């Protein structure tokens, strides 16, 4: 790398010595960080290669040298790196009541959605010119990782068809709720949305117990680990009066 | 229209008189039907303009005369016509228990998914080259129409944020379940999937009653219209033992 390419490093912050020569990896990381920051808050359509060069404080040809595929390559690399960050959010030690673990995962997930608002919307709403079979594959991989993590916490290794559909359907519901949440200017507060999404999964599990033995076993194990202060107990206390209202049907 | 363009009409079936001259509207409809049949069972990538011409029994230039935008224009017109058919499925007279009305709507919806299997998957999975902001807008319009119809049957004109999120989230879950259903070679049978999806909405409504007054009112009205043989009663009977299992939490 010719030293001249380090000229703009000083723009990234007062603490960075001017003209410091970045290694290939450092430079690549710097460009990717700049791209990711832009793609997080804007639709890919609205981000130009000049914007990326400007945000990184480098010239447009330098961006092309590292990402010869231009914006599309940068977009896919930024998405790849977001996918890794999301997969990292999903990791939670298998300790304590499962619904509380799920709540912590959802808190991290909603913080991610908050930090990647416009980019998250553009990606999941479809119709973006930057969307390809490769970007769809990355999104699907994240969904699969999320489903696998949930199944780990439910103590299931190879789910039957009903439980598999239940978990994947709930993940789709979480995505939809996240998009609506962004549309509604992040109302209700993230903690309230998280609580509702946990209730949603518990309600789905409860509704599927009688028609699916595997789900019944999962719910049995889940109930044994929950506490009177936890989400399942709170939900049960709230649903009992509703079931009471349905007494005329029983 | 020069008469020569009617030459291939005889190929569409023995009952059609050969060389019958189709009106502009008839011809357009014929081409669109042919395109729709292909797009229903294949990803747009896998449908060529030659395929459409062949299915309609006409020449490729004739297809271009009616659809100068070529395959993309045909795809969007086919999608528009599918969206209208779907919106038509959603219409259900406001009579009888709401969950039974919902079951009938879902039966029609699942029949539609069954008849448009590969096209439905390709459209909703994203990453298709035929996907544009226009096709996304058509899909969104269908989702909006579905949400409006559900709210009509729940007796709500302008839903508050929680009920709005609940209905839209459930619609996303139905879409996800439909895609998984197609992946799983249409297992379980459509009637079983429909029953599970109705349970899913009822469970969601029940889980939201305590945190949202509007949902509580909706559930109250819903329960008053249900019968002991209906989906809500069936679900309530199945959930009661689960709540019993949670007695140690209460």
From TrEMBL, chains A, B:
The keyword Coiled coil does not apply. Keywords: DNA-binding, Transcription, Transcription regulation. SUPFAM superfamilies: Homeodomain-like (SSF46689). PROSITE patterns: HTH_TETR_2. Residues 48-67 bind DNA. InterPro entries: DesT_TetR_C, Homeodomain-like_sf, HTH-type_TetR-like_transc_reg, HTH_TetR. Residues 25-85 form the HTH tetR-type domain. The keyword Transcription regulation applies. It comes from the Bacteria. One of its GO terms (molecular function) is DNA-binding transcription factor activity. This is Transcriptional regulator, TetR family. It comes from Streptomyces venezuelae (strain ATCC 10712 / CBS 650.69 / DSM 40230 / JCM 4526 / NBRC 13096 / PD 04745).
């Amino acid at each position: 790398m010719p030293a001249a390419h380090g000229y703009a490093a000083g723009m990234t912050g007062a603490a960075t010595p001017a003209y410091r020569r970045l290694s290939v990896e450092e430079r690549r990381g710097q460009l990717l960080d700049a791209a990711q920051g832009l793609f997080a808050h804007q639709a890919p359509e609205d981000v130009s290669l000049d914007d990326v060069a400007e945000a990184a404080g480098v010239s447009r040809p330098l961006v092309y040298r590292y990402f010869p595929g231009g914006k599309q390559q940068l977009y896919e690399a930024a998405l790849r790196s977001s996918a890794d960050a999301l997969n990292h959010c999903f990791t939670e030690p298998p300790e304590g009541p499962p619904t509380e673990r799920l709540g912590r995962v959802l808190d991290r997930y909603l913080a991610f959605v908050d930090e990647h608002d416009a980019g998250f919307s553009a990606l999941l709403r479809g119709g973006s010119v930057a969307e390809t079979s490769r970007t769809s594959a990355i999104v699907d991989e994240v969904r699969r990782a999320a489903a696998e993590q949930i199944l780990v916490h439910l103590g299931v290794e190879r789910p039957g068809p009903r439980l598999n559909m239940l978990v994947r359907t709930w993940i789709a519901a979480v995505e939809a709720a996240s998009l609506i949440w962004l549309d509604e200017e992040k109302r209700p507060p993230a903690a309230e949305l998280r609580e509702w999404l946990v209730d949603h999964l518990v309600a789905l599990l409860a509704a599927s117990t009688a028609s699916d033995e595997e789900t019944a076993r999962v719910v049995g194990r889940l109930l044994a680990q929950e506490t009177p202060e936890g989400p399942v107990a709170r939900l049960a206390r709230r649903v009992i009066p509703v079931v009471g209202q349905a007494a005329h049907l029983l």
